[in-house]
Amino acid sequence: MPVIFKLAKDIENQIDGFLILVYESGLIFKMAINEYLNNDIISFNKNIAKVTDYERKADELRSEVEKQLYLKTLIPDNRGDVLDILENTDNVIDAMKSTLSSFSVETPKIPPQLNLMYNKLTKSSIESVEWLIKAINSFFREMKTVNCFIDKVTEFEKITDDIAIQLKTEIFEQQFDLSEKMQLRYFADNIEKISDYAEIVGDKLAIYTIKRLV
Amino acid sequence: MIFFYLLGGLLLGWSLGANDAANIFGTAVATKMVKFRKAALIASIFVILGAVLEGSGTSETLDSLGSIDKLSTAFIVSLSSALTVSAMTKLSLPVSTSQAVIGAILGQNLFAGFQTDLKLLTNIILSWILCPIIAAFFAILLYYALKYLITNSKIHLLSLDALTRFGLIVAGSLGAYSLGANNIGNVVGVFMTSNPFIDISIGNIININSTQQLLLIGGIAISLGIITYSYRVMKTIGNDIFILSPITALIVVTSHSLVLYLFASEGLRNTLISLNIPPLPLVPVSSSQAVIGAIIGIAVAKGSRSIKISTLAKISSGWITTPIISGIISWSFFYLISHF
To answer: Which of B50, B305, B322, B333 has the fewest other C-beta atoms within 10 Å?
Structure first.
């Protein structure tokens, strides 16, 4: 019997590790965007490498957790839900990585007057991810607080939407070429999408929480 | 010839093991929380232990209800019960081995003109009604206790899963022990007076009396039923009345085990008497009805409206139909044998 407790502890540590990677990727993402806006490309590139590394490690952890849950037939009632949450949370870190990668490849020229809005958008989008990680942690450990955290995810997703609209309006009010406007809008959309992915996981979590209640 | 006469009881034991092990480990095996091999091994060992260590109480109660002093009479009573159980199972009618055996004994009493101890019979019938009620009560208590613990303990989902597995094995072991102690009366109770065995002593160190030998053989018959046939029943059990999760399954098995133990343990009975608390009679009760009682308890605690009343009514009807059918079969056998 101690074997099964040890196995449970190992998988718990892997899930915690996965969530920490997503959380830290969010922090790095915020720094990286700020560095890009301030033309600190060396630091920006270092942080892209970090997020890429975190994304790879998160993938490995997720697939290891999936394998263990199926092989050892653990949490039969919640296995599908847990795997769905992990897979969808993986989309969040993937979105961060691909957004940074697009910045690196396309190197869009962001006018300094838009820096503040881009930073605000990034901060708000990542804040929804941070609340999501708290919600997922609660789903595993403390059911009664999950819904409060999910509400926060939704709140920040809405704030992010509002900021994105303001930013895009401002972009299209400027005297840029249409191609520049389109590119700037594309990057705003990409940053905004991170909070959309977080909200998708939050919605799923709300349903799975009801299922988990004894 | 002795073993031929015992065959009726052993067949009943086999069928009991095949069917009632599902009440103990059914949900755990069906939800893959516990592997069948592990479940069967644990259930077999604990059924035998329960039968040998604490099975004499219920066996003596059944013995004192009738006037069965010949092996051949005991054989016919057992055979009538086994036929009733098999036929009703085949017809998908709810059936309890305990109720079939009592019906068969009453049929024999009626045929032989033996005065049935009405006080004992009333106690037995009351225990049948009390069994699911007490199980429901235990289930409600356990449900609220576990809900409080899970909500406030901040235990991780995976640790909870591991604990539930561990709990299912512990509760299953207790369930198998209680099943052996309580239901062995159905298997060998009618053979108690006509017990063909003699006491065995191995070097004055190991002493096995004739009753223990009878209980051991009955326990082995139940174990064989578990090992050879319970897998199919386990795979199909569970969702007739209410869908169970591993945690609610744990509550059901624990409640079932406690109830069966309450109606089987002489030690517990003596403790209750010494504390001036009215004890419960040592009577074989229906394992399936204990499970049903516990499932209803959980449904009530959850405020569920999804209990199928028709299924409940069908199950309750088994209280009346099983002993009547078994009594008629038993009486008919004795009538036919005496006239042909």
So the answer is: B305
The set of residues, in sequence order, having a beta carbon less than 8 Å from that of A160 and lying 6+ positions away, is A121, A124, A125, A128, A192, A195
pLDDT tens digit string along B255-313? Answer: 999 999 999 888 888 888 898 888 888 888 888 888 888 988 998 898 876 667 776 77
Euclidean distance between the first and final Cα of chain A, in Å? 24
From its phi and psi, is residue B281 left (phi > 0), alpha (psi between -120 and 50) or beta? beta
The tokens of A3 are what?
């074997």
Q: How far apart are CA B67 and CA B73, in angstroms?
A: 9
A8 contact residues in B (CB cutoff 8 A): 156, 158-159, 161-162
Give residue A135's identity as a one-letter amino acid code.
A
Residue A150 C-alpha, separation from nearest chain B C-alpha, in angstroms = 18
Cβ atoms A116, A46 nearer than 8 A: no
Which residues form the domain of B186? 2-339
3-state SS string for chain A: CHHHHHHHHHHHHHHHHHHHHHHHHHHHHHHHHHHHHCCCHHHHHHHHHHHHHHHHHHHHHHHHHHHHHHHCCCCCCCHHHHHHHHHHHHHHHHHHHHHHHHHHHHCCCCCHHHHHHHHHHHHHHHHHHHHHHHHHHHHHHCHHHHHHHHHHHHHHHHHHHHHHHHHHHHHHHCCCCHHHHHHHHHHHHHHHHHHHHHHHHHHHHHHHHHHHCC
pLDDT digits 0-9 by tens, B105-122: 999 999 988 888 898 899
Within an 8 Å CB–CB cutoff, is residue A139 touching chain B?
A: yes
Please name the residue of chain A whose CA is at the shortest distance from the CA of residue B249. A214
A77·B151 Cβ contact <8 A = no
Q: CB count, 10 Å around CB of A106?
A: 11
Q: Please indicate whether, in this complex, the C-beta atoms of A1 and B169 are within 8 angstroms of each other.
A: yes
- Asked if B263 has any chain A CB less than 8 Å from its own CB, the reply is no
Question: What single-letter DSSP state applies at residue B192?
Answer: S
Residue B198: in which H helix or E strand, if any? none
Contacts of A149 (CB under 8 A, 6+ apart): A131, A132, A134, A135, A138
What the block records as the tokens of B238 is 């569970």
- How far apart CA B79 and CA B227 sit, in angstroms, is 22
Interface residue A112 vs chain B (CB under 8 A)? no
Q: Which residue has the tokens 């009594």?
A: B327
Between the CA of residue B128 and those of B20, B63, B283, B293, what are the distances in Å?
16, 18, 9, 11
Q: Which of B157, B158, B247 sits opposite A214 (nearest CB)?
A: B247
Distance CA B235, CA B89 (A): 17
The structural domains of chain A, ordered by start, are 2-212 (1.20.58.220)
* A12–B156 CB contact, under 8 Å: yes
